[in-house]
Write a structure and sequence with these properties.
The complex is a heterodimer of chains A (136) and B (102).
Chain A (H helix, E strand, L loop, with lengths): L6 E6 L8 H14 L3 E6 L22 H4 L9 E5 H6 L12 E2 L6 E2 L3 E4 L1 H10 L2 E4 L1
Parallel strand pairs in A: 1-2, 1-7, 2-3, 3-6
Antiparallel strand pairs in A: 4-5
Chain B lengths: L2 E5 L8 H8 L5 E4 L14 H7 L4 E5 H6 L12 E3 L1 H10 L2 E5 L1
Parallel strand pairs in B: 1-2, 1-5, 2-3, 3-4
Classes of the chains: A alpha/beta (136), B alpha/beta (102).
């Protein structure tokens, strides 16, 4: 495995299902996580709709990929950020979003929900700190 | 019956809804489909546009698309009617033509 670990920021700005961006992003996130990189996800603008609870695609003949977000903690993804302004403009609160648990299997450290709602100043800092930003 | 307008883009990302509402004649119908269904969600920044439109237009949302995105009918702006695919076909047949705002 590579010794160089980079801080990857996956920037998600598209709603799910209407376009393929959300699903493609999730695929690339899982690849990044498999290569032991420092994976960070940020959801802003319509990207916040990717995390809504209760998605049910049985009526539209498309795969419901939303359960995969809840497994991200198992891929050692620990940092998931959601822009507060984007949520508010869309009439959403954190209660409308899935919860994603994380556990370190060696230390047994547990975090009940790694989805953090943040303000734009924090988002700006996080983008600045990233080595690479992947845009979807 | 006049025109059935369809909007399939998010009102937060594109101006399809704005253009549709600007040009739609009173008495026409608006059907929100695909990412357009986010305009039907209550409590958003786009809600005033739909509320104003409801004075002149009949507004419908494609239920399966709304449900796919995680929302139940109680999250709809009041006055919007839910249709399924068969209802979509009925609307298309009842109106003189369908105008899609992509």
């Amino acid at each position: 495995m590579s010794e160089i670990v980079k801080k990857f920021m996956y920037l998600n700005r598209k709603a799910p299902y209407g376009t393929i961006y959300a699903w493609e992003s999730l695929e690339v996130v899982l690849i990044g996580a498999a290569f032991d990189q420092d994976v960070n996800l940020m959801f802003l603008d319509d990207g916040v709709f990717q995390l809504t609870k209760g998605q049910d695609t049985s009526g539209i003949g498309m795969k419901n990929f939303s359960p995969t977000y809840r497994t991200l903690g198992d891929y050692e993804v620990k940092n998931i950020y959601v822009d507060r302004d984007s949520l508010e403009a869309r009439g959403l609160t954190q209660d409308d979003l899935v919860q994603i648990a994380w556990e370190d299997f060696e230390t047994e450290e547990e975090i009940e929900n790694i989805v953090q709602v943040i303000d734009s100043e924090r988002a700006r800092e996080l983008m600045d700190e990233a080595d690479v930003v992947f845009s979807f | 019956m006049p025109i059935l307008h369809t909007v399939n883009k998010s009102p937060f990302e594109r101006d399809s809804l704005d253009s549709c509402l600007k040009f739609a004649q009173g008495g026409a119908s608006l059907l929100l489909i695909e990412d357009g269904v986010y305009a039907a969600l209550a409590g958003t920044a786009a809600e005033p546009k739909i509320k104003a439109a409801l004075d002149n237009l009949k507004v419908y949302v494609l239920g399966p698309d709304f449900k796919a995105r995680g929302f139940s009918d109680e999250r709809l702006i009041e006055g919007i009617s839910v249709v399924d695919y068969a209802g979509f076909v009925d609307l298309a047949a009842e109106h003189d033509k369908v105008q899609a705002w992509l």
